[in-house]
Request: fold
Amino acid sequence: MLPQQGSVGRPRLYCGQACRQRAYEQRSAATKAGLPDDVVLVSRGELDSLQDRLYQLRCALEDVQTLLTEKPTKAELERSLADLVRCTGRLDRLWVNGRSG
Reply:
């Protein structure tokens, strides 16, 4: 069996061409507006939604921590962890998308 070869070139910074394009558009818009490169603009609705999800996640984590200080049954622990997983959702899909305009 041959040893596994490492990847060639620089490591990928973006998951795909579309993400790379959105990043370029965001940098370009920020430069045109005279904003620093690290500024991110989001709508009030997007920010409120994110804060709601983070609050739900924090509460679920606190519930698990509280339960662990007690002597939970397996069912209680499973229920609490299932709630935590549900609140976590697909955090990998939680991205603030750039907008053109």
